[in-house]
Amino acid sequence: MAIRVLICDDHSLMQRGLTSLLQSASDMVIAGTASDTDGAVNSALTLRPDVVLMDISIPGAGGIEAIRRLNANLPEVRVLVLTVHEDDDILREALRAGASGYIVKRAAESELLDAVRAVHRGQTYIHPSMTAALLRTASPAPEKTNPLVEELTPREIEVLSLLARGYTNRQIAEHLTISVRTVESHRANLTGKLGLHSRVDLINFVEANDLDA
Q1: Is 122 part of a structural domain of the chain?
Q2: What is the pLDDT of residue 136?
Q3: Rounded to whole angstroms, how far apart are CA atoms 119 and 111?
């Protein structure tokens, strides 16, 4: 079944360009468009899209507020932020509001399509440059080591760091020269030891404990 996408952007040229791009993908259809905060929320409530492509700077209360409302009323709908802002503070705010992904408008067309597919699958997609920014601005390591970190093996810490940087299981396997099944085993161990499930949680944990490799 095709992914139904709601485009929320106040620039008509951008709307038309995005519409043309998404329609060129055989697995996507346009559910509708909106150009301001209220329109985005009301259209989503009416049309029930799978993915909302959200510009942060839409008129009204803004894209962040729209994300909060969508997350409160339609938690099953995935929101992918598409913005010119390469600002990690805005990224953090969008993720806290409930966004499932964050991609910048200078990204390649193929990357945008991949991002839509990723968030539709339930994954968190963050543009690589923004993931790097999050990790570069990691909080200083606490004076006392987190006891949860002490439970991790060196290999689990490597896998955790790569997951937080956006690597897939297969990419981690290739990077560490191990099997995908072994990566999956490490991920299961990490979930059991840390209780972390989403990539956002992984990024926050890596930041807080200065684990970026």
Answers
A1: yes
A2: 53
A3: 12
In a domain, 202, yes or no: yes
Q: In total, how many domains does the chain have? A: 2
63 and 33 inside one domain: yes
Residue 56, domain extent? 3-134
Residue 134 confidence (pLDDT):
59
Question: What are the per-10-residue average pLDDT scores of the chain (213 residues)?
Answer: 96 95 96 96 97 95 94 94 89 90 90 94 85 55 61 85 80 88 88 78 78 60
Cα(171)–Cα(197) distance, integer angstroms: 19
Rounded Cα distance, 123 and 104, in Å: 17
Nearest Cα neighbor of 163 from 184, 148, 181 is 184
Distances in Å between the Cα of 199 and the Cα atoms of 28, 100, 101, 118 are 24, 10, 10, 12
CA distance 116 to 102: 10
Kindly state whether residue 65 falls inside one of the protein's structural domains: yes
- We report the CATH number of the domain holding residue 32 as 3.40.50.2300
1-22 CB burial, b ≥16 within 10 A, e <16: eebbbbbbbeeeeebeebeeeb
Question: What's residue 117's pLDDT?
Answer: 96
Distance of CA 185 to the CA centre of its chain: 23
Do residues 97 and 195 both lie within one domain?
A: no
CA–CA dist 142, 173 (Å, integer)? 30
